[in-house]
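Slide 14.
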Amino acid sequence: MTFTSIKYLLKEGLRNTWTNRMMSVASIAVLLSCLVIIGSASMVFLNINSLVERIEDENVIMVYIEDSADQNAIDTMEKKIKKIKNVDNIEFISKEDAWKSQLKTMDEADRAFFTSYTTDIPLPNAFKVTVKDLSKFKSTVKTIKKLDNIETVRQNTELAKKLDTISRGISIIAIAIIAVLFAISLFIISNTIRIAVYSRRLEISIMKSVGATNSFVRLPFVVEGVIIGLISGIASLGVVWGVYELALQQFADLIDSIRLVPLNFIDYALPMLGAFVAIGVISGVGGSLITMRRYLNKEGSEISAV
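Slide 15: predicted structure.
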C-alpha cells in the first residue's frame, strides 16, 4: 500500500467521523461515560487501598522480650526475626522509651503516683514487627513464637484477615467494573461503525468489486474508531479530575472522620490519561474490526444487499 493510498484512507476516516458526527458524538458520549465511571471507581479504589495499607502498617506484631534476656540475646533475636521472609520492618522499643510514652498518656496525679511509688519499670523490652503480606500473618506469628527469650506475642489475627479480605474484594470489584464497562464500550462503538458501514454499503460493494483489499476498505473505519477513542480518553481525564475534586470538597467532613488522607490526583493524571487513551483506542479499533469482519467476509454484491 503506497503512501498516497494511506493518506487517502486517513482522510476518508476523518471524513467519515465528520459525516456521521451525530453517531460519533453519541459514541464519544457513551465511551466518555464509561471511562469516567472507570476513572472514578479507580480513584475510590486507590484511596480505599491507601487507607487499608495505612491500617495494615498499624496492624503490627508486638514481640515482648523476657527480662532475663541480655543484650546479646536481644541482638540474636532481632537477626532471626529479620530473616523471616514475610517481615517487612522491625523496630526495637526499649522498656525505658515505652514507659516514657506510657507516662505521657496519664494525667498528672497518676503520673506522680507511679513515678514516686517505684523506680522499677513494669514494662518489658519489645520488638515492633511489620509484615509484608497479611495473608501470611498467622504463619509469621507462629514462626516468631518459636524463638527463644520471648515472653509473649501480641497480635490481631482477625483484623489482619479482615484487611486482607477487604483488599482482595476491592481488587475484584474494580476489575469487574472495568471489564463490564469495556464490553459496553465495544458494543456501542460496534453499533456506530455498523451504521457507518450501512450508509456506505454501495461504495464498499464497488470497492470490493474492483479488487480492493480488506485492509484498504477497513482502514477508514479503524481511523474513525481511533479518533473516537482519543477524544473520549482525553475528555474523560478532565471530567474525572473535576468530579474527584468536587467529591473531596463535598465529603470533606466524612474524609476527616475516617482519617483518610486523599491522594493527589495530579500524581495519577498521566498514568490515567495513558490508560484512558489506550482503552478508548482499543475500544474504537476493536469495535471497528468486529463490525467490518462481518461485511468483508462477503462478496461485494452481498454487501450491497445489506
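Speaker note: The CA atoms of residues 177 and 185 lie 12 Å apart.
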